[in-house]
Amino acid sequence: MKCQTKILRIGFIGIILSLLAGQSPFVLDSTLTSSIIQSISNSIEVGDINNDGFNDIIYSGYDENRSGLFIDIVLTNQEGTLSQGYQTNFITYPDTIAEYLGGIGNVSLSDVNLDGLLDIYINGSARSKLLFNTSGVFNESLWLENMSVTYSYGNWADVNMDGKPDLFLMGVNEYSDNILNELFINQYDNLEEDPATIFPSLFTGSNTWGDYDNDGDPDLIISGQTADPNSSVTRLYQNDPIGRLTEVTTSDAINGLKAGTTHFTDLDADGDLDLIMTGWNKIEGRLITYLLENEPLGTFSQMENQIDFAVAYGSIDAIDYNLDGFQDFLIAGADSVSTYAGRVHTLKAQVYENNRDGTFTLAQEIAGARTAKFVDINQDRIPDLVTSGTTEIGNDSAAFSKVYINSHSGSNALPEPPSALNAFAVSTRAIFTWGSGSDDISENANLDYNVRIGTSSGGNQLLSSSIPYNSSNVGKRLIREFNEIPHGKYYWSVQTVDGSGNVSAWSQEDTLFIPRLVPSIQSLPGVYYSSAGWADYNKDNTPDLALTGVTFSGSSITNLFENSGGLLSQDLTQNIEAVFGGHLSWVDYTNDGNLDLTMTGFQISNFFGGFKTSFYKWDNGIYIADNNSEIDADINYDGIGDNWVNGGVNGHHWGDYDNDGDLDYVQGGFDNYYRRHLDVFYNDNGTLRLDTNQTYLVPINPAIVQWVDLDLDGNLDLVTIGADETESVMMRVYLNNSNHILTPGITWQTETFSVTAGAIAFADYNSDGYDDFALSGLNSEGNLITYIAKNSVNTFIVSHVLQGTYFGKPAWGDYDADGDLDLIITGQSSTEGDLGSSPITNIYYQDQENNSFQLDETLSIDSVGISFSQWGDYDADGDLDLFLSGFKENQDVVAQVYDNLESIENANKPPNAPYLLDDSNINNNRVNLTWSAPIDPDNPNGTSTPEAGLRYQIQIGSEDENNDHSVSTGSYGINEIGTFTRTQKTLKNLDEGNYNWKVRAIDYGLATSEWSNTDYFYIDVTPPTIDTIRANYVTNNQIILVIKFKEDFYLDINKEPTVLVTHPYEPDLGLLESSEDDSLEVIRQSFNSDEWTGVILLPDYFSGRAIEVHVYGAQDERQNKMQRTSIFKSPESIISQYGGTAISENGEVSILLPQNAVEGDIAISIIGQDVPADTSSFLVDGGITYLISDLYDIKPFNQSLKKPGILRIGFPDSTCLITEQLNQFFDIDCPNEISCNALNGEWIAIPDSGLTPFIGMIDTTITDLLPVVKLGGSQISIGDNSFMQVQIDTFGTYAAFISLDTTLTSDSIDVEKIVCQPRIFSPGGSIFEFKETNILYSLEEEANVTARIFNLSGRLKRVIKPDFKTQAGNQIIQWDGRDSNKEIVPSGLYIVTLEKNDTVLRTTVGVLNR
Predict the structure, then answer these.
(1) How far apart are CA 378 and CA 77, in angstroms?
(2) Cα(73)–Cα(386) distance, integer angstroms
(3) CA geometry: angle at 827 spanning 825 and 829, to 5°?
(4) How sure is the predictor about 1034, in pLDDT bands with cuts at 50, 70 and 90?
(5) pLDDT digits (tens, 9 = 90+) for 722-735
(6) What are the backbone dihedrals phi and psi of residue 1096, each rounded to the nearest 5 degrees, phi first?
(7) Which residues pair with 811 in a beta bridge?
(8) In the chain, what is the straight-line distance between the N-terminal and C-terminal CA atoms, in Å?
(9) pLDDT confidence tier of residue 9, bands split at 50, 70 and 90
(10) At 1234, which helix (H) or strand (E)?
(11) Are 149 and 180 within 8 A, CB to CB?
């Protein structure tokens, strides 16, 4: 019937209109016009400024007579008269185009600060002002940055659907001299530029918002020119539900406009917004108007019938002014322009009546109108018209502002408000819906609606009731969605808007309560007997989820869910064995910077169940089983790990109990033979090894285990709860001593906390720096308990008693972001009924003022038993979300993520980074790292985590290994593992090297600070060593020694080294200045950095110029003191006529050249090849031959000698004989008798071993297995050291060997008589370098020889007989120039004889003393 009435009404109206054909629908009212200031406006807006229920008129523009940009507010009232309201002006200058047209710019209305009053934004003519309304008086706001904009246009819309109006502004910013096209998002304390969308650089145009695709959010169209004055551009942007604008590139009907304006309205009354566009088009080269039809929805096409009127710098408005249910419209502006619309000649407005058939009839024309707007002035609910302009551009007296009253004689009733209001929340979305309103003219589908939502009755705090005339804040839809609104109680109401701009009364107010925690849209498999963990394992800065448990169907799972933009989806690349009923941990135990995964629990495999401990390590994004730890040891080869256990939901834990930086592991529970365990495994470079030193631990099952530094001594202690083999359940605490042995803490041990089917959560809830805990479970008396226990330094004391539960998991977290820890407990609240019955989920917020925990009764969370819970900010919005799984009362199985809405208004701010890092406290391989606690900034509600409540994570890496995580990883899950409350960390047993480290803080909301600045330290456990010693022989007896130290850290130059010199063959090194000491002290000249310089004068009695340098006492700045080092030095050159000695730096090799052995002076070097002994052994005809010294290069190579030189090479005088059941061999590498005994060998002297020592020369031309020329040699002893010596005639590579081969060939030198070299020597020193002579001879076979020395009178002075038979080959006997009484013989000539069997050989030698 109502529809028929409307049709009759519309028909009657049509008849009346036909009778009145030719009459203008709007009649000028001179009286009302005279009450308005006559200025040219560029913009007119209409809205109820003073909230008196009547729509007021706001004029704005540039007027040079008023010194710039003005605002005039004209108030309407119930009587239909006008009065002047608020006025203001801003002194400025005009733009160059519209100086005499009111300027280019506009005014836009919106309740920006949601106080229920319409605010004003005005721009143009080098001004941009946001004015807040205070009961009709306006004050400039600082919410919008100060800008100087010209050729501009700004418009409001709630682009991100949060209820707060946002601003799009285009124009030229004269401050920065750039074209500005920016979207400013309303943050409720400022308007902030949104960088998400890049807009074209347009000005001299306009922008309009409208929901053309009917999806509930405002879309945007902008038009204007670029820097090219001959350009015309229009862009359409579609809004998605989160406020992201995307350019629509497929709408061919959208043509470019310069100086244009646009307007969305439903011209064909089909329920969607069509589009009117007018302006200057480059292609057409003229002003043009486009009427575009939205058909199908979201697609624009030109209507069949267009109009032949267009303007620049104008305005468009649409309304049903003739009450026929269709939208009519007006266009006003510059109808005649030139120079690409750069010059304006005339102004005009035209009103078009909608013929309801897709055609439009010109109903009225108003000359000189720059802008026009519909408004109901006389309060008859029929739109009237106001205009502003000039009839002569440039003539101030021709300016006008006129009022036209609608001459329509019909009536229009107010629309009816909607009913059936309904509102609800889904995840972070809040949805408000209602039924249709009604109207006597407009069809229901063509009605618009306004919604008011506040936090108090009649309030506007979320969505304002103050809306400009003839507009709507939700459009035609019967729903308004919010992506995120703060939790709390909301009051809301809806009103209907008809086609003529009239609004109904507000509907009856309804309410919606949104709890702080709401179910998310995440879809996870429901599980019980579960464990889960948040962690960013894929390193995309959002927490992912690991989940284990039993599903509703009875199967078990272990799944990983990747977090992509807040949406959790299963990572199908992973293949991880399913476990349930145990514990799961994210931890980087391999120290590669990537999170690994560890699990204990029950596992079903091949229809059989058992306990399983599983380690999975990260391998390039895939988790692979790690079976290398001793946890998987299988001594009885039954295929089951001996240390596979399950102790329950707290059955294992990680912590650095030995303070070496990496995370170690503890576990408890039954193994698969139902033996109880309590095992500690230390981390050995990613391999877990059982710590067999922990002898005090009592195995338990079930097992609650946790590493905690109870006494804040820097050592992690161990807290356990469980039943021992006598079934005695109690809390046992093991204190960690300085040697990292866990010993029973008697004062901590108690039966108060003896629970089964329980769980524990540690945290410092009272911010005193000591970790406390919450515990739930079934106690020994059969009662369900939930205790909060306070750490009282030497024991735990129950501080709060909450509702008891078991088969659950408590979890701490500051879910309300008020700076203290709150608590969730879940599980079964009764021991009666089936498993899973009487479940509860209680969240307690901490009331610090009353020292209590209060149940949050505003929440609606699933009550679950056999459950698991954990806090984590998975959507990274600054509040703690909740994961919850388990059995519901109806036996449904769930795994649910609850989104926390706290951050919408009170996002938790992360702490500042720690600072003042200090690593100066280093002792040997131990370092104490300290830092200063940062500030946790106040959250918006003014609260923050206290300093003592902050926890820390540390990352320590090795510069040498190029691994920033090698000591302590910087990758952690979202839990307490690896965190501590102290602002220091002690590390022990560090290898020498360079390290980097940094630290970050964690607050009660589990927000982490940025990492601190990186600091560096060096561990130095190696004392200084000698790099080089240079001996500069300045004169015959003066030597300058330059000692270069090698030190990787810093040498302590305040600690003088001691430098002594002794004779290389008489090293009586004892206490300086003692009677038995002939060592010479080197006098220091300088000691800078790593170089020490000193000088020594050799005394007259010193024989030769070769020396042995002894250095000790130097230390580095870490007090590492060097060991005594001795190095042999000799002159770099040997003078031919004197002969001389060259000696290797280690003193193991020397070569003596007699006088005139070479032509000219020669520089000799003796350098070892660092070839280990016994690396060259050869099986030859005579037996096995071993290398027993280094290989020494004597250079220059191939230097021939005119006289034989004496080569001496040190060698070991004993070796180790190893006898096995089927084998016997010599271990040449064995260094001493102790080591030989450890090998069950026999330490025997070389002469007793059957092995023959000899010196050999390497000859690569020999192709046998042993490329060595065997030179034989004589054994001598100098001090306690054994040497072989032999005569040589050329330089090359030499070494000492031993062999079972006794058939040694003769030297190439054929000596038929004995020779003494040197022929003259000085046993008393000083005259010649040589203090002894060498008696050279050759044997063709092994024999005993005797040397005798006579003076020229024939008196026997000395008899020398070698201790051992002399080998075949070239041999040497040494005479030191002393007689049988060890006295030095007088200077003179001496006869030397050598006797072998019946052969006597003779020669002479000279002795010359000082």
Answers:
(1) 8
(2) 13
(3) 100
(4) confident
(5) 999 999 999 999 99
(6) -140, 145
(7) 824
(8) 149
(9) very low
(10) helix 1233-1238
(11) yes
pLDDT of 1214 > 80? The answer is yes
Percent of the chain with pLDDT over 70: 95
pLDDT at 542 over 50: yes
Whether the bond between 296 and the residue before it is cis, its omega within 30 degrees of 0, is: yes
Identity of the amino acid at 1047: E
If you search the block for the tokens 């195995």, which residue do you land on? 699
How is residue 488 written in tokens?
């709390």
Angle among Cα 839, 840, 843 to the nearest 5 degrees reads: 160
Return d(Cα 524, Cα 897) in angstroms, integer.
9
pLDDT at residue 395 tops 80: yes
Query: Phi then psi for 488, rounded to 5 degrees?
Result: 135, -170
Which tokens sit at 625?
Answer: 């089983």
Find, among 1219, 1202, 1101, 1204, the residue nearest to 1158 by Cα.
1202
CA 991, CA 1048: separation in Å to the nearest integer? 13
Please tell me which residue, 77 or 1408, carries the higher pLDDT value. Answer: 77
Name the residue with tokens 């409720």: 188
Residue 4 banded pLDDT, cuts 50, 70, 90: very low
Q: For residue 1314, which of 1205, 1405, 1191 has the smallest C-alpha distance?
A: 1405
* Phi, psi angles (nearest 5°) of residue 33: -65, -40
User: Which candidate, 554, 504, 510, places its Cα nearest to that of 529?
Assistant: 554
Residue 678 structure tokens: 């309590």
DSSP 212: T
Q: What is the rounded CA–CA span in Å between residue 979 and residue 655?
A: 9
pLDDT of residue 1150: 87
CA dihedral of 1400, 1401, 1403, 1407, whole degrees rounded to 10: -50
Determine phi and psi for 663, rounding to 5 degrees: -95, 130
213 SS3 class: coil
Question: Is it true that the peptide bond before 1386 is cis, omega within 30 degrees of 0?
Answer: no
Reduced DSSP (H G I as helix, E B as strand, rest coil) percent helix, strand, coil of the chain, to 5: 5, 50, 45
CA gap 803, 601 in Å, rounded: 27
- Residue 843 confidence (pLDDT): 98
Q: What's this model's pTM, rounded to 2 decimal places?
A: 0.76
Longest CA–CA span in the chain (Å) reads: 172
Bridge partners of residue 1371, in order along the sequence: 1337
Q: What's the number of CA atoms in the CB half-sphere (13 Å) around residue 1314?
A: 27
Task: Say if CB 546 and CB 557 are below 8 A apart.
Answer: no
φ, ψ of residue 630 in degrees (nearest 5): -70, -5
Q: Supply the DSSP symbol for 591.
A: -
Closest CA to 1255 of 1219, 1301, 1289, 1287: 1287
- Over the Cα atoms of the chain, what is R_g? 50
881 contacts 899 by C-beta, under 8 angstroms: yes
Q: Which two tokens stand for residue 1003?
A: 């607050």
Average pLDDT over residues 154-173: 96
Distance CA 1210, CA 1278 (A): 10
Per-residue CA distances from 81 to 24, 405, 467, 724 (Å): 22, 12, 22, 93
Q: What are the tens digits of pLDDT across the range 1180-1210?
A: 445 677 888 889 999 998 888 888 888 889 8
Compute the average pLDDT of residues 4-26. 50
Q: What is the structure's pLDDT at 897?
A: 97
The full length of the chain comes to 1410
Q: Are 729 and 751 in contact (CB under 8 A)?
A: yes
Q: Which residues make Cβ contacts (< 8 Å) with residue 782, sequence separation at least 6? A: 831
Which of 13-22, 594-603, 1325-1334 tops mean pLDDT? 594-603
- Report which of residues 1015 and 1232 the model is more confident about: 1015
Contact 284, 315 (CB under 8 A): no
Among 649-663, 816-830, 1360-1374, whose mean pLDDT is lowest? 1360-1374
Q: Residue 760 in contact with residue 736, Cβ under 8 Å? A: no
